[in-house]
Amino acid sequence: MARKPILAGNWKMHGSTAEAKALAGGLAAKVGQQTDRGVILGPPFTALATTLDAVKGTNIIVSAQNMHFEEKGAFTGEVSPTMLQDLGVTHVILGHSERREIFGETDELINKKVASALAHDLTAILCVGETLDQRDAGKTNDVVTGQVKAGLQGVTTAQAPKIILAYEPVWAIGTGRVATPEQAQDVHAAIRACVNGLGLPGDDIAILYGGSVKPDNVDGLMACPDIDGALVGGASLKVEDFTRIVEFQS
Ligand code: PEP
């Protein structure tokens, strides 16, 4: 099965509702009718409803950036999978390195979130990636495949269509230092082999690259056989830049 490219924006903690409306509305006009590639926007929780409204009638998908694994309860400040479903959200980013590093999320917690997302029919965008120290120590593939195995524990073949993976080397996120296409391709191939080794259909699962993707480097990355798309932070906040990324040429 040919994998459809996916270009996803992670807006992180940026944007008022007015800014979200302008950004999502601008992208809806520019790339809302794409059919040969998927376009995903990931606004903060407070802008999910506005963004969903702004992309109504287009093919653009809206994703949350995180969620709790429980449906409800005494979890002050958290948002549940059923709350996301209630809004009409279909995707959720899980295990972003900022969640792992700043908020102490473990592989075990992330796996609970993946399981919960799938149980609630949400597509999980599971992020993995190594630090610079780990790369320098030659541990990249071990670290990344370890995160993939832990994150996907218990996931079944029937659930695999609701999994998107994102390889995001921590040293490349928000730093302007992008992995070379060769570096990214090597890790993507290792991730795909790992997923196949788990008995899941690795050849059907999209693996996105994330880490300082910009209009001027997206084409080289997208030319790699195992890079199926991009998860984009900074450059997803500008209509023009993200449009060019969606319209990558390779
Ligand atoms: C990200 O937030 O997932 C990301 C890759 O950020 P940036 O594109 O800014 O490096």
Rg from alpha-carbon coordinates: 17 Å
Within CATH, the superfamily carries the name: Aldolase class I
What percent of the residues sit in helical stretches (DSSP H or I)? 25-40%
Mean pLDDT: 97
The ligands bound in this entry are: phosphoenolpyruvate
Task: Provide a descriptive summary of the structure in words.
The protein is of the alpha/beta class and 250 residues long. It has one domain: Aldolase class I (TIM Barrel), CATH 3.20.20.70. Helix content is 38%, strand content 15%. It has helices spanning 17-31, 48-54, 81-87, 97-102, 107-119, 132-136, 140-151, 181-197, 218-222, 239-246, and strands at 6-10, 38-42, 61-64, 91-94, 123-128, 163-167, 207-210, 229-232. Helix 1 packs parallel to helix 10. The protein is globular, with a radius of gyration of 17 Å. The relative contact order is 0.15. Bound molecules: phosphoenolpyruvate.
